[in-house]
C-alpha cells in the first residue's frame, strides 16, 4: 500500500550534509523529529535513487587548509596567463612508490555460487603487500629524465647528489636557458644544502603550493605507468622485475601523451580559480 506521510517526509530529503560529525550526533529519525524505526534503509535508498543519487566511492584528495587555498590562488594568479611555450620550459618532477601488489579494492572476479575459494577466484597475496619500489622522474614537452630508483629513504643529500646534479641540471640545460624546475615542498627538496646547491647551480625553481598534486601533470604519468605495468601477464614476480618494467614502460610512453598532460596546465589553473583554490578534477 501507499507509504505513510512520515515515511514520505523522511525519505524525500536531499542534500543533507552527511559528514562524520553529523553522523555521530544524530540519526535520520531524530534529525527530523521522527522515530527512526518508521523508515527502512531500503526506503531511503529508493528515494535517493529517485533523485539521481547513487553511492559512489569518494574521490580522494589531500587536505587543503585556508592557507593552502590562499597559496594555490597566488600560484594561479602568477601562472594563469602562461602560454604553451612557457609551460614547455618547465621540467615537472616527483617521486612515486609502486607496490608489487597494489591494494586495489576495485578488483572483481566472475565466479559461480560456491566457487569463492576456487582456482582463479582467489587473489593470492604475500604478507605486507610484497614490498615496493620508489622512483623519481621528470617530464617536459621536449624531453624526460631517466626513471631513477630511490633506494631507501630520500634525503637532501641523496636528492642533491643522485638526482639534481646528474639528472635535473643536464635536463634543464637541454630544455634551454629559460628552463624551470618544478618540485614539491617535501623536506628533502627544501633542505638547506639543496637550496644552496640550487642557488649555486643557478637553477630557476618554480614556487609550488603545498598539498597540490592535482596541479602537477606528472601525477597522471604515474597513473599511465601503473596501467602499463598492470597489462603485463603474468604480473611481476619480484621487485627487480617490477623496477625493470617500470623503467621500460617509462621510456615507452609516447611524447604526444606527455605533451597533452602538460598542455592541460592552463585548464588546471582555470579550475583552481573556479574552485577558489580548492580541489580540481585533476
From TrEMBL:
Superkingdom to which the source organism belongs: Eukaryota
Protein name listed in UniProt: Transposase
InterPro entries noted in UniProt: RNaseH_sf, Tc1-like_DDE_dom, Transposase_5, Transposase_Tc1-like
Single GO MF descriptor: DNA binding
Domain Transposase Tc1-like as annotated: residue spans: 38-80
Any one biological process term the GO annotation gives: DNA transposition
Tc1-like transposase DDE domain ranges (all copies): 89-233
Organism: Littorina saxatilis
UniProt xrefs under Pfam families: DDE_3, HTH_Tnp_Tc3_2
Amino acid at each position: 500500500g501507499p507509504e505513510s506521510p512520515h515515511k514520505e517526509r523522511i525519505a524525500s530529503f536531499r542534500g543533507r550534509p552527511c559528514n562524520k560529525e553529523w553522523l555521530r550526533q544524530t540519526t535520520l529519525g531524530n534529525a527530523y523529529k521522527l522515530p527512526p524505526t518508521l523508515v527502512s534503509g531500503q526506503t531511503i535508498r529508493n528515494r535517493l535513487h529517485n533523485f539521481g543519487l547513487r553511492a559512489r566511492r569518494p574521490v580522494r584528495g589531500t587536505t587543503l587548509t585556508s592557507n593552502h587555498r590562499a597559496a594555490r590562488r597566488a600560484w594561479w594568479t602568477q601562472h594563469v596567463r602562461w602560454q604553451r611555450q612557457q609551460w614547455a620550459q618547465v621540467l615537472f618532477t616527483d617521486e612515486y612508490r609502486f607496490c608489487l601488489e597494489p591494494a586495489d579494492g576495485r578488483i572483481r572476479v566472475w565466479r559461480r555460487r560456491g566457487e569463492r575459494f576456487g582456482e582463479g577466484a582467489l587473489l593470492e597475496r604475500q604478507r605486507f603487500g610484497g614490498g615496493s619500489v620508489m622512483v623519481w622522474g621528470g617530464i617536459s614537452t621536449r624531453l624526460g629524465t631517466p626513471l631513477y630508483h630511490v633506494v631507501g629513504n630520500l634525503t637532501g643529500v641523496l636528492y642533491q647528489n643522485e638526482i639534481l646534479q646528474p639528472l635535473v641540471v643536464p635536463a634543464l640545460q637541454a630544455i634551454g636557458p629559460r628552463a624551470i624546475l618544478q618540485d614539491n615542498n617535501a623536506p628533502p627538496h627544501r633542505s638547506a644544502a639543496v637550496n644552496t646547491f640550487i642557488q649555486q647551480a643557478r637553477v630557476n625553481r618554480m614556487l609550488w603550493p603545498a598539498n597540490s598534486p592535482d596541479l602537477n601533470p606528472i601525477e597522471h604519468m604515474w597513473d599511465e605507468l601503473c596501467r602499463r605495468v598492470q597489462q603485463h601477464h603474468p604480473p611481476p614476480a619480484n621487485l627487480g622485475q617490477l623496477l625493470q618494467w617500470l623503467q621500460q614502460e617509462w621510456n615507452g610512453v609516447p611524447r604526444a601523451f606527455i605533451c597533452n598532460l602538460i598542455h592541460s596546465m592552463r585548464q588546471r589553473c582555470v579550475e583552481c580559480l573556479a574552485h577558489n583554490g580548492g580541489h580540481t578534477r585533476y
